Amino acid sequence: MLCVGIDPDLHDVAIACWTENGPGDAAVVHVPKIKGRTGTVAVLWMVRALEAYGIDFRGAQGIAVEAQELKRSGNSIHKRPEDIVILGNVAGAVLMLAAQAKHAMTCFPKPSEWKGSIPKEVMQARLYTDLGWGYQMASNYALPLKAPPAYTNVSRGQWKHVGDALLLARWCYNQIRK
Questions:
Q1: Top-tier CATH class for 3-177
Q2: Of 142, 58, 131, 62, which Cα lies nearest the Cα of 101?
Q3: Residue ranges of the domains in the chain?
Q4: Which pTM value belongs to this model?
Q5: Which of 7, 31, 60, 70 fits a 20 to 30 Å CA distance from 88?
Q6: Which positions ≥6 away from 152 have C-beta within 8 Å?
């Protein structure tokens, strides 16, 4: 069984696979930041980049695209709520591409659904420990110490998104197995 997890972002959309053997390949579709480019234009650039990348979801039994969630309390208040709306446009574009996999279960879980209240860096650190990769902490995410060779294309800063994509793919896999 093949499941795909996707962590959308304006500049780095991470795509990761999970099978009965654990993590599969991962990729990052990158669009560089350009000073003065508005959020709307950045969304269009990302949509074009995703389309050009040619994501093929055929064969996937499950696809999980992270939904957005506006945080309104505690230390997690979004400083610019309009950013979450712009990010939602990227997620919508990814969902449109995922809809091409007509036989796959496609879901759009909010972070609170797939990871609860556990912080991103803790979830990622637990995953890398479970996989035997080890980890070190970066600013707000965990960085694996020895990921498999299939992940050599992932830069240090992109692990923030790849870690979540892996977790989403595993979450999707476990939902289907229930």
A1: alpha beta
A2: 58
A3: 3-177
A4: 0.89
A5: 60
A6: none
